[in-house]
Amino acid sequence: MTLAPTFAQDDTEQQAQEPIAERAILIENVNIFDGKKDAIKANHHVLVINQQIKKISDKSINYQGQLIRINGKGYTLMPGLIESHGHLAIVDNLSNLKHHFDWVEIGVRQAAMAKSWLLDGFTTVRDVGGPTMGLKRSIDAGVVPGPRIYPSGAIISQTSGHGDIRERTDRHPYLESESDEHMQRLGYYYIADGVPQVLAATRNNLRNGATQIKIMAGGGNGSEFDPIDSLQFRPQEMKAIVDAAKDWDTYVAAHVFYPKQINRFIDAGGMSLEHAPAINEATMKKVVNKGVFIAMQMNGLSKELRDSPFNPPYAKAGIIEIQKDSKDFIKLVKQYKPKMVFATDALGDVETQTKQRRFELYERARIFGNFETLKSATSVAGELMLLTNRRNPYKLGKLGVIEQGAYADLLLVAGNPLADISLLGANKQWIDAESPQPIDTIKVIIKDGRIIKNILRYEDENN
Ligand SMILES: [Zn+2]
Questions:
Q1: Contact (Cβ atoms closer than 8 angstroms) between residue 406 and residue 50
Q2: 87-391, which class in CATH?
Q3: Considering the chain, what percentage of its residues have pLDDT values greater than 70?
Q4: Given this chain, do its domains 20-80+404-462 and 87-391 carry the same CATH topology?
């Protein structure tokens, strides 16, 4: 529908009457990694119309009309990357968030964070905790650059659960009247106990635009007062949350470490395991049978995590304990091949999150190989996003694949990332890494059919 402006004068009215022109990009002479197969299709051409991939061919494509033409020079075209366990609202350590940043500063830093993910080639982020709905809306409206976001809204936690990050001196939000805790007021987490409260928390997130729900179903290292092995939420509370999410045609993701936590969550109908490092064989079989996704971080099993100065002092003992209990994780994944998505759980400022995601790419590729890592960050993650069904904000096409009709979220990489993952910024260093620089081997980034980055132009000028 085209609306003529009421202030029409000169040629403004004329333009408004004409049909809206298509936006077209023709990317010629590329090798394609489609996100699904461990193979490269050589010498192809791809036509993007508006937001979607319109045509893929090994013959040159003729398009009548205005277009942007990109000579791909035999570089590799691949789907934009997807992060499945991000925290774009956790823009610094918890102490700074709690005591020093007001909402304006948090908003500004969120925008910078979103841009840094996009410029590293991540065109989609599933955010699993924190107020990112406003960020998502601002990005979708074109106000600031950033990835597509699937926000979870406030983490839902029981009292004394892994999301209950109050200090000992902070009041309880409803047992001791209105909470004074800054992050709770900003919508980072809800503390809810009993069926009516967990239902209200779930529904309030959905009302605010959450595309899926995130709960804390077991202990963690970033909260001080809950043991990591503790079971959090009773089965009936968990079932109530899952059912309320299902009523909105979407699903629940849960922070879990141990088999007892995982089993309780899956029995309640949960579909996405956040972490799950101490999974055992029986539980892994159940995960595979039910088609449940696992969003685990390889950085979580690393020595680097143990040594990270970013950890609050109370975290270290728990990290050592969970790493000791997680020695079968890699073996079980290799044996049972569950649906694993790329997931960094990066926390902190832009530099910290950038280093962590580049390390995660390196570490996963070292353990599972380049193809498995890239598949987990493209087509498998795209499948996870589809669990949002009618709450999916991006319904026009698939994410994480190069095929006709898929969203035109694309990277053009100088070289073959299936052979060399460092082309995507994978970096062996994490804590000790140098300050991150732009990834020059990612030559072009397209999101939603729009060119976000194109440094091929400068190369051409210099030649
Ligand atoms: Zn997390």
A1: no
A2: alpha beta
A3: 94
A4: no
